Amino acid sequence: MAQQAEEVRPARTGPFRRVLLKLSGEALSGQRDYGIDQERVEALAAEIADVHSGGLELALVVGGGNIMRGMDAAAAGMDRATADYAGMLASVLNSLTVQDALERRGAQTRIQSAISVAEVAEPYIRRRAVRHLEKGRIVIFAAGTGNPFFTTDTAAALRALEIGGQAILMAKNEVDGVYDGDPKTDPEATFLPELTHLEAIERGLKVMDTTALSLCMDNSLPIYVFALTDGNIRRITAGERVGTIISTPETGATA
Ligand code: UDP
Fold it and tell me: Cα-Cα-Cα-Cα dihedral of 133, 213, 23, 148, to 10°?
């Protein structure tokens, strides 16, 4: 890795100082059914680097579902835990791809992995991750939580809380927010601009898995769900109202 001079960062003006952006593996595969669409990665990296250069402290959690999904492999006969570890390694592959594209655009980055891959990434160390963010580096959290039977959505919730992130930005590949049904198959499905974490859990809405949602609910961490189309990350971090916001009012509506 090339030595980089420490950057002087501009003062942040938007609504967030520090956020965590969750990129699913599918976000990197674009129109392809599988693997990585390099053009998509380049466009995504350009937008992320641009947003970051405005002074935002930014952490990423990168999924692996474009390469390996533990549950699917287990359904096809593979041992579940082994398949899940393979899924975590897929997240490491994707993280390296995103890191490379970001650094070519001048962003300083560090990958921290939840499973040991010492030649390509630092181990996950919370205090060190926070220090990287303070120094203006984008921190990419790879390999999910490091545990089988979890998902990178749960890792996003966990890491966002650990680093004191103000929100999770969930960039979705094919939908522009949360609906009360599947808009791809149900023409009656209605868009929900706002809802609480509890509503999302109780109604079984496909936002994140329930482990991740309940972690966010218990810790009042808002989730912004939006389409990964050009400019949306920039718009949300600038304070524009885009997609669905999932939050729980401070008054303790979940008690
Ligand atoms: N995975 C896991 N533990 C984690 C995170 C991920 O076992 O903490 C495995 C799991 O098999 C999952 C795969 O890695 O299916 C890829 O992650 P995920 O499905 O969350 O990726 P995404 O849907 O975001 O692309």
Answer: 90
Please report the sign of the dihedral spanned by the C-alpha atoms of residue 30, residue 32, residue 38, residue 39: negative
Quote the pTM value: 0.94
Pairing of strands 223-227, 168-172: parallel
Per the document, the length of the chain is 255
**CA–CA distance, 73 with 93 (Å, rounded to integer):** 18
Separation of alpha carbons 78 and 72, rounded Å: 9
Interior CA angle at 216 toward 207 and 30, to 5°?
35
Closest ligand 1 atom, residue 24 Cα: 24
- How far is Cα of residue 194 from the mean position of the Cα atoms in its chain? 20
Distance 188 CA to ligand 1 centre (A): 31
pLDDT (tens digit, 9 = 90+) per residue, 217-234? 999 999 999 999 889 999
Please tell me the distance from the alpha carbon of residue 184 to that of residue 220, in angstroms, as a whole number.
Answer: 30
Q: Is the CB of 155 under 6 A from ligand 1?
A: yes
